[in-house]
Amino acid sequence: MNLRVEIMMPSSFLKMEAELRNAAVDRLIAASLSDGKPAREATLDRWRAIGTQQSLPEVELRAPKQPG
């Protein structure tokens, strides 16, 4: 016997889940860039792209500077 259980979540929970997922992606973008300013710019570009339903801009990733 197969028993299927569906949990109905209010739309506000689904929206909050999507916002948290986007925030996590933004933090990963920021962590992958070595300088804070490009990270902020990449995050802003990403939010603008989501807001206008355009494709995400390509971001040039630079390797962190090696000490010494």
The residue fraction in helices comes out at 55-70%
By DSSP (H or I, 4+ residues per run), the number of helices equals 2
- Unreliable stretches (pLDDT < 50, length at least 5) are none
Mean pLDDT: 69
**Main β sheet profile:** none
Order of helices and strands: HH
Task: Give the overall shape.
Answer: elongated
The assigned structural class equals mainly alpha
Could you tell me how far the N terminus lies from the C terminus, measured between alpha carbons in angstroms? 66 Å
The amount of beta strand, in percent, is under 5%
Instruction: Report the strand count.
Output: 0
Task: Specify Rg, calculated over alpha carbons.
Answer: 18 Å
Short account of what is shown:
The chain has a domain at 11-50. The protein is built from two helices and no strands. By secondary structure, it is mostly helical.
Describe this structure in words.
The protein is mostly helical and 68 residues long. Helix content is 57%, strand content 0%. The protein has a domain of 40 residues. It is built from 2 helices and no strands. The N and C termini lie far apart (66 Å).
Topology of helices and strands:
Layout: H1 11-32, H2 36-52
Helix pairs in contact: 1-2
What distinguishing features does this structure have?
single chain; 68 residues; mainly alpha
